[in-house]
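hey can u check if this looks right to u? its 262 residues, i copy pasted from the old doc so theres a chance i mangled smth
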Amino acid sequence: MAQVKAKKALGQHFLTDLNVAKRIAATIDRENLPMDSKIWADIPVLEVGPGMGVLSQFLMSGGRRIKAVEIDTESVEYLNKVFPDLEVVEGDFLKMDLSEIFGGKFALIGNYPYNISSQIFFKVLDYKESIPVVAGMLQKEVAERICCKPGSKVYGILSVLLQAWYDCEYLFNVPPGVFSPPPKVMSGVIRLTRNSRTSLGCDEKLFKTVVKTAFGQRRKTLRNSLGGLIPSSSPIMQDPIMGLRPERLGVEDFIRLTLACS
């Protein structure tokens, strides 16, 4: 097993504990996937931000085809030298056309940089038909937001949009001491597996607008925040749901609100 040096770049604190890295890599192993997701157990894997390869080395031992996207030139040079069998794609993940990486379905994993983790998961939504399994580590606050249920104070836009298409699991905490340099916050490891939904039953673009508008004024009731989207004559305006704040609503509720906008 390669000894992986640590460095900090692009807002990322690099993981140095190999046991934790192995545990993260194992989140997409066949035996660890939910039963209804095992059909995706052998698809290739794209790792985001491999850095010095602490996670890559365990992914490569899993028998799948692995590619890694890395923006830092120094890291790319290191990876090519230490892990010559790893396919490294140099570039900005957020600007890439992911459909060109494998040309089909793939799993996504990474120790995601804190400063762009939300953007990464918003991009996942754009490729939800190609990415049936997503796993990895990110700031605990963001990880909890993705996986929490309605009623939580951290429940928000990312929660609703991702849970519309994925079953989201919060797997375990990762303490600051296993990083170099240690971050000031806890980290969390999550896994998202594509659910059986094939359609929202409403306009998807409008659904996103409704969700973002509602949470953009999350202190207001839906009657006030969505007044510009839902006609005042709509029967739903008299429904008790309109007296709630957005964090109380699940995916199906937002679909219902979207249909009322039409």
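Strands lie at 14-15, 45-48, 66-70, 87-90, 107-111, 133-139, 166-174, 179-180, 187-194.
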